[in-house]
Design a protein that fits this description.
The protein is elongated, with a radius of gyration of 25 Å. The protein has two domains: about 10-155, Creatine Amidinohydrolase, Chain A, domain 1, CATH 3.40.350; about 160-420, Alpha-Beta Complex (Creatine Amidinohydrolase). The chain has helices at about 30-40, 65-75, 80-85, 95-105, 120-135, 150-160, 160-185, 190-205, 265-285, 295-310, 320-325, 410-420; strands spanning about 10-15, 20, 25, 45-50, 60, 90-95, 110, 145, 210, 215-220, 240-245, 245-250, 250, 255-260, 350, 355, 365, 370, 385-390, 390-395, 400. The strands form seven sheets. Strands 6-5-4-1-7-8 form a six-stranded mixed sheet, covered by helices on one side. Strands 9-12-13 form a three-stranded antiparallel sheet. It has about 425 residues and is an alpha+beta fold. The structure holds glycine and manganese (II) ion (2 copies).
Length: about 425
């Protein structure tokens, strides 16, 4: 509200319910921006911030209580609960919003609002402003400026508070336990979906959900970056790549490990694995305050290009291979992304044309990989090997804090854990 100033008003809609099929809806997930500001987890709600308004700065419009509907769909806070339990200064039935909100907007000159995300709500906002404009001849005042609220809010979300970091540490811990569980239970002949089931079980046991569809790719399926089919059988002698994280109390984890289905790396698998691991450790070392966003990626690219050259998969001088992006046929994604309430979290990666500098409180994934296409272009012994190692890293004054550090990633440690399973 301090950033908006006293002539601004912010308007945020709750996430709508999403149909899944026919008359069944997806489980409700509140919009991250809305939840960040309100902690309010119901659909059909609108949060309004009016800095400096004497009769209340934080207003919530929400569903009224309705015993009959609550019997089917569960508890509703109602306007009274919104004030009592969610800290709203005032709250109103959502059905009265057309009568109440324009009158509040009248005293504001700037509307902070995330335009273009919700077409239906865009229409309501336009209607409220137009209803004020049409009163112009009667001396009614209408706001003149629309400002993108996301710009301010997403910068706030990029810097995590201590309590947010602690929520993320808990989300990482649950995902670590699930990865351990899957590693220990893996046997040749199992199906990818059976490993996925271990994750769902461990997540739900801790009141968490998946933060994205788990990727369980055996053998060359690991080279399909967004493989979520998870239906193939796991073969003796193959690796399996698992990218799975959870969401706990609205904060996400995002972890990848790659390990041998039979519990032992082959020499070729180990050789490629060691390169990815070295790249990941080099990137984590660069995930420090004051470095720019792309420095961890540069470090990973360097180690990976050098490693691929040593394996004979790339040919040329190191500087030229890096300059030409020759590594991209094996490593085609970036080394990380912001992580927070959303798995690919909000926040700009550049300020103007320059990469952003890393600062305390930011959280990023570090996830280099090598994926060798399963084609005759490459030596048979390397074909179809896909390896990624992904951890969640908070930037702190004392250096990188790896939130997912409890999970093994040295090849010997992975083999030992799998033997124990
Ligand atoms: N699991 C999504 C990602 O790693 O970005
Ligand atoms: Mn991931
Ligand atoms: Mn990721």
């Amino acid at each position: 509200m301090r950033m908006m100033g006293n002539d601004g008003i912010a308007i945020l809609p709750a996430a709508p319910l999403q149909p899944r099929s026919r008359d069944v809806e997806h489980r409700y997930r509140q919009d991250s921006d809305f939840y960040y500001l309100t902690g309010f987890d119901e659909p059909e709600a609108v949060a309004v911030l009016v800095p400096g308004r004497e009769s209340g700065e934080f207003l919530l419009f929400c569903r009224e209580k309705n015993p009959e509907k609550e019997l089917w769909d569960g508890h509703r806070a109602g306007p009274e609960g919104a004030v009592r339990d969610f800290g709203a200064d005032d709250a109103f039935p959502i059905n009265d919003i057309d009568d109440i909100l324009p009158g509040i907007m009248e005293s504001c000159s700037r509307v902070y609002y995330a335009m273009g995300l919700n077409a239906e709500f865009d229409g309501h906002v336009a209607d409220w402003v137009n209803s004020l404009r049409s009163g112009g001849s009667r001396g009614v005042h209408a706001p003149q400026e629309f400002v993108a609220l996301d710009h301010l809010l997403h910068d706030m979300r990029l810097y995590k508070s201590r309590s947010e970091i602690s929520a993320m540490r808990r989300a990482a811990k649950v995902a670590v336990a699930a990865h351990e569980r899957a590693m220990k239970s893996t046997r040749p002949g199992m199906y990818e979906y059976e490993l996925e089931a271990e994750f769902l079980y461990e997540f739900r046991r801790h009141d968490a959900w998946t933060s994205y569809s788990p990727i369980v790719g055996g053998g060359a399926n690991a080279c399909t970056l967004h493989y979520v089919t998870n239906r193939d059988q796991l073969k003796d002698g193959d690796l399996v790549l698992i990218d799975a994280g959870c969401e706990l109390d609205f904060y996400a984890s995002d972890i990848t490990r790659t390990f041998p289905v039979n519990g032992r790396f082959s020499p070729e698998q180990r050789a490629v694995y060691e390169i990815v691991l070295e790249a990941q450790l080099a990137a984590i070392e660069k995930t420090v305050k004051g470095n720019h966003w792309d420095e961890p990626h540069d470090a990973a690219v360097r180690v990976i290009t050098r490693g691929l050259r040593k394996l004979g998969l790339l040919d040329g001088t190191l500087p030229k291979l890096i300059k030409d992006g020759a590594y991209r046929q094996f490593f085609m994604h970036k080394t990380g992304h912001w992580l927070g309430m959303d798995v690919h979290d909000v926040g700009d990666y550049k300020v103007g044309d320059e990469w952003r500098l890393l600062e305390s409180g930011m959280v990023t994934t570090v996830e280099p990989g090598i994926y060798i296409p399963n084609t005759r272009k490459y030596p048979a012994k390397f074909r179809g090997i896909g390896i990624r190692i992904e951890d969640d890293v908070a930037i702190t004054a004392k250096g990188p804090d790896v939130l997912s550090k409890g999970l093994v990633k040295e090849p010997d440690a992975i083999e030992a854990l799998m033997q124990a399973g």
